[in-house]
Amino acid sequence: MCSRSSTNLTWAAPSTQTCSCCGTIPSSSPKGRAGLRIGGPPRQWSCSECEAEHLRDLNAAKNILAAGHSRLAGGIPLL
Fold first, then answer.
1. In this structure, are residues 16 and 59 in contact, taking their beta carbons and an 8 Å threshold?
2. What pTM was computed for the model?
3. 23 vs 8, residue with greater confidence
């Protein structure tokens, strides 16, 4: 018998809107359902602060991964 546990991501930061390169939420980031282009392409945006080009979902994944690494670096409390 295998026992599994899961952890929910409780990080409430706007991972899609935050630039994964410079960490800002620039005015050029997608806002709302129309800005996020849910359900249709293109899902790209450019950061007006550092001019990085982003694919929406990949940018969000990078931000979530960075949050996880940050939590690991700080230590995970025993359950």
1. yes
2. 0.69
3. 23
44 neighbors 24 (Cβ within 8 angstroms) = no
Token pair recorded at residue 67: 């949050």
Q: What is the pLDDT of residues 27-79, one digit of tens each?
A: 888 776 666 566 666 688 899 999 999 998 899 999 999 988 888 887 766 65
**Alpha carbon distance 56, 18 (integer Å):** 10
Amino acid symbol at 14 = P
Q: Cα–Cα distance between 38 and 16 in angstroms, integer?
A: 12
Q: How many CA atoms lie within 13 A of 41 on its CB side?
A: 2
Chain-centroid distance of CA 6 in Å reads 20
The C-alpha atoms of residue 1 and residue 40 are separated, in whole angstroms, by: 42
Q: For the chain, report the end-to-end CA distance as a whole number of angstroms.
A: 21
